[in-house]
Amino acid sequence: MKRRFIVIVLDGFGMGATKDAYIKRPGDEKACTIGSILKDHPDLKLPNLEKLGLMNAYGHESDLMKFNPKANYGKSELMHFGADTFMGHQEIMGSIPKDPEMVPFQEKVDIVAKHLKDAGHKVDIINRDGLRYVVVDDYCTVADNLEADLGMCYNVTAPLDYLPFDKELAIARKVREVVTVGRVVVFGGTGNNMDDLYAAEEIKEGKYIGIASAKSKSYDQGYQCLHLGYGIDPNVQAPTILTRNGIDCTLIGKVADIVHNEKGTSISCVPTAECMDLTYEAMKKMEEGFICTNIQETDLAGHSQSSTRYREILEIADSKLPLILNEMKDDDLLVIMADHGNDPNIGHSKHTRENVPLLIKYKDLEGRQIGLRHTLSDVGASVCDYFNVEAPAHGTSFLDLLK
What we know:
Layout: E1 3-10, H1 21-24, H2 33-40, H3 47-51, H4 54-58, E2 72-76, H5 85-92, H6 109-118, E3 123-128, E4 131-136, E5 140-144, E6 153-159, H7 165-178, E7 183-189, H8 194-199, E8 201-204, E9 208-211, E10 224-229, H9 238-244, E11 248-253, H10 255-258, E12 265-267, H11 272-285, E13 288-295, H12 297-303, H13 307-327, E14 333-337, E15 356-362, E16 369-373, H14 377-386
Helix pairs in contact: 6-7, 11-13, 12-13
């Protein structure tokens, strides 16, 4: 009998500021991603998410979307530092990463450059308006990540027609050895070149300089990406626990790039429709197991500060949901959630610290509420509970509330 637990993460789709936002993310106290989208687009209609309890989780109705008394739903706070996709997904899988150092790449240029030179790489230091970043082996930039919280991540970027991804990854691993920021993000695409990367240079707050990923043309074709995290133990996370017990695990979309899944299947993908189609195909092939899909384009729309683009992506995701819902069998469980917020109208292009929805489809259950969870790890704990394997490091299962 087929038995699957499916999680779809609408990246950056927040439901309003967490109660600790004024302490942990000053400036995010008024953030509300769904509220901003609905304010700009009151005619937004997402019939499948609405039926699953989207407005119930939000706590408000719009002109066209209403509460569904039959929905199973809840919300979750964030336990990880800040509001971050990488850390959010580690938290979903059942671990809370160590608090990283937050420091501009300016303070690490010399130590990174020396470490790479000592490893035999050619290193050039680029100076723009008194700010520096590194170019390695002529085709690989190392600089600040401008999309996450400034100072939390460094990006390693290359045009893959000129530098293969495995060589770029080797450079990134050397960077990871000498920095303690939350992530070193290594990525690139084909069809672009160094002129495209240089054209995507940006400076923020006078002390951060990097290659704006969305402008670098890395996403256009041949995209590859891997996130090298700080303080992560994959052995206590749901994917490793499941596969260690012989249970299939498939990660689709950005989650494939950022969550360790050595014995499972990981499929990188960005386009929303393709991610949803791949989820459907994975369900058809899987007899028993866990599928987690990240819809990244919602987050990219937030970074672009475009509620219109955000709406378009939500509509695509919603239109594809019937594929998944119609493929569900009696014992399958579906959770639709987010990992943080990304309010397009907050006034900056960073993530926002918001509560996230938990929309649940399971058997013929109706009208169940799982309340406000204190950590995203409750999802990973519920996954492990569902398959009767050992619990991850953090989280409390909510399956008892669905009986």
